[in-house]
Amino acid sequence: MTARFLETVFTPAVLAAQAANGSREAFTHRLGADGPDRIGEPEAAFIGARDSFYLASVTETGWPYMQHRGGPPGFVKILDPATIGFADFRGNRQYISLGNASADDRVALFFMDYARRARLKLLGRMRAVDAGSDPDFVALLSDAGYKARVERAFVISVEAFEWNCSQHITPRFTAADLAPSVHAMRARIAELEAALAERDAAAGGPAG
User: Fold this and answer.
1) Which of 52, 122, 142, 184 can pair with 161 through a Cys bridge, CB separation 3.0 to 4.6 Å?
2) Which residues form the Pyridoxamine 5'-phosphate oxidase N-terminal domain (predicted)?
């Protein structure tokens, strides 16, 4: 957990809750950030391998709003150590995150790797880049082989991030995660079936 992340989320109410529950002193020595966090190699590799994340924004009436975002692995691009971006695919056309960001650009992103029980939280400020106003930049954040209509790009200036522990994360695996094991199992089954068929043929037919 970075000092910048702590200083961003440790509001007076949070500090009061920590003091009341006896955890305030545990975090005191971890404060004192000089500026926004910068994405390093571990964060870039983790984000670059994800095919989805959760995006939280804030409505003008103060309600938090959470949305799932998905795409091909690596659809969230690292533009530089202070900036990430992703293509905004056409969906249900509610435009809630888009509208929220136009009024309050603060967002939170939650990246999950269930198979390896790892998670990364990122805080930042998000702006939209319309495909019509800057098509070359939006194309830079798009994936040519992915069949989805890109309406715009979202660019996020990183403020802070936090790696969470693996406690309480239940391992879950995608079809792609399991594919090598399933392929090996099917190959082994085919090998055993061929061996049985060969044995039966040598014995004059299947055993009764």
Assistant:
1) 122
2) 44-137
